[in-house]
Batch of 2 targets.
Target 1
Amino acid sequence: NAGVTQTPKFQVLKTGQSMTLQCAQDMNHEYMSWYRQDPGMGLRLIHYSVGAGITDQGEVPNGYNVSRSTTEDFPLRLLSAAPSQTSVYFCASSRPTSGGHLNEQFFGPGTRLTVL
Amino acid sequence: AQSVSQHNHHVILSEAASLELGCNYSYGGTVNLFWYVQYPGQHLQLLLKYFSGDPLVKGIKGFEAEFIKSKFSFNLRKPSVQWSDTAEYFCAVNVRGKLIFGQGTELSVKP
């Protein structure tokens, strides 16, 4: 299994440009999520999905869109990049426990995004 | 506001010293608790988790954590750290399907 994969690893954008960060998992996990990591702020949840066709907002959703057309893929779209979106972005996936709890999340290697 | 707080931003220890990293959360009701570790240049990995049962949880690499419900705490401990434990440590709480992270604690272990 490749686990959780993310592309690209690095990206530089100009303010106002759009792009899509790709995330895929081959573990048949229902739950997928996107986080951004900024120094001194830990990881903050952007959007998450509990299954194909279902997405919801996390702590910091503004400026980001997601969709979940398949179980495997969960792309994150920046429609109009801003310098405040300079960050490291992590995708993660997990499956629920039998009690409906959120189980261990498996993280991808991250995408380092710089917006000039 | 609901939050997860890690008291120490940067901890510096010598090898063989004992470690305790604090984590407090402000959510009521049922929570699931996690500690993740991020080694330099790597992505996050699970150290341990608590769902229910024995409040003393053992994880990988000799780490353990104690859930104290009355104090809303889930502190991470290790009796004797090694240089290879140098990393950033994150506490996280699952609240209604959302995983909320603390700010992280950077641990530096001097050989």
Target 2
Amino acid sequence: DIQMTQSPSAMSASVGDRVTITCRASQGISNYLAWFQQKPGKVPKRLIYASSSLQSGVPSRFSGSGSGTEFTLTISSLQPEDFATYYCLQHNSYPPTFGPGTKVDIK
Amino acid sequence: QVQLVQSGAEVKKPGASVKVSCKASGYTFTSYGISWVRQAPGQGLEWMGWISAYNGNTNYAQKLQGRVTMTTDTSTSTAYMELRSLRSDDTAVYYCARDMGSGSYGAFDIWGQGTMVTVSS
């Protein structure tokens, strides 16, 4: 199975900060990488697919990049509604595997 | 609009089985598959398996092989996930998600609202 790691596991940030989360795959996954946002008690929401494509309706402050084994999710200017846990997912091959998550909370 | 609506919360005793439904609307059901994902309290997301709504092909997580069965009813655009021999560590929120399958970009774009399954004696 492909293992996914994320860093950091948690972070504190302020409104307006630029936030970058990294996801690494244990082997190459091309660009079959998606990012999800989950707020407490809510359903995960896909933000980014194909590593860098923005899901329709998602604010443009979210962006993704990377290919192969290293990927990043960037929030250019953190907003109050962005405090949440973020997960990456590889779906290059079975089984699809999620990263352990990065919790972004208020500094 | 495109949506997946799941069945309601369940409370089961250890050793019992649970069957969760996921009804699709707003898209051609047989053009996609459905993945099932679960999340134990305070934990991350765990993929359980996938079923093609086109031909019923399945792919299950190895740790659940033998305990899980995924099916679809194309006449009602509904997917089902049955988990048997329930244990306390199966307590989780269970989600269905639209998924064209690994190696495609149409993965996990639409999610059901989740179904809480509690396993307790």
